[in-house]
Write a structure and sequence with these properties.
Blueprint lengths: L1 H30 L2 H14 L16 H8 L3 H6 L1
């Protein structure tokens, strides 16, 4: 019974993080201008470093084109920032 509770806690934390991530994505897509989209994305990515993806607190492994595609912007807009 105790193992099931621990598993439930882990699953709920994961679900909560997923929901928060999706809310942030929707906010970024619908409410932010191009500068806010890029800044929000960079701040979010570097706030949660992930060595497996090459993300640290000071760098991300994405090209300007990949940023543009991820944020629904063209590469030139991503480059301007």
């Amino acid at each position: 019974m105790e193992e099931s509770r621990e598993l439930m806690k882990i699953m709920l934390k994961l679900l909560s993080r997923t929901c928060n991530h999706l809310v942030e994505q929707l906010r970024r897509i619908t409410l932010y201008d191009r500068y806010q989209k890029i800044a929000s994305f960079l701040l979010h990515e570097t706030s949660y470093p992930d060595p497996d993806r090459g993300v640290t607190r000071t760098s991300i492994p994405y090209t300007q084109e990949e940023l543009g595609i991820s944020l629904g912007l063209n590469r030139v807009t991503a480059q301007e920032y």
